[in-house]
Amino acid sequence: MPDKYALLNVLDRVGSAAVLIHCLGKTTDFNVLARRIISEHPYDPTVPVAEPFTNRMIQNALTEPFGTVELERPRSEQRLVFQAMDITAMGEPHRLLILIDLAIRTDVYAPALEKIFGLTAAEGRLAAELSRGIPLATIAQSRNVSITTLRTQLASIFGKTGTSRQPELVALLSRVCLFSAVADVAR
Description:
The chain is α+β, with helices and mostly antiparallel strands. It has helices at 4-13, 32-38, 55-63, 110-117, 121-131, 136-143, 147-161, 166-175, 180-186; strands at residues 17-22, 27-30, 66-68, 80-89, 92-101. It has a five-stranded antiparallel beta sheet, sandwiched between helices. A hairpin with a 2-residue loop joins strand 4 and strand 5 (92-101). The relative contact order is 0.14. Residues 179-187 have low confidence and may be disordered.
């Protein structure tokens, strides 16, 4: 049986916002990243947080594996979804929700890409910039290099990552090295 605090701490470290909901329909706890997403006081852990979710959303989260998050006091820019799974915490059944804020674009950490895929520093930076949706022409202009140079680097990245197109590369990068949320928690 996992200790809820250890579980929530691990999820913080891997960059996942997580919420525990008791099977009876009440939020039990949430980790630092979830607090940042849902709380009116995201940076003050001493301020208690009232039930952040609507009753309808909690009932949906207790039965569905995926869904949208409805907050009692939503911020206009937020678009939240969840993935849910059943766990036992503190000896009782709970639902663990992994929250995803669709409005936040997580940066890929270039040095991690270099290490994982054997990329050069320039290739790692290029891959990270492409994962953020920056067009090749914009990258070329900001670096003061030709698009041909970047296409050569991109071909090398494709070979080292086992991908063949930019969308395929970006999809791969979105699954590895998500660093911004983890870096924020480590600070």
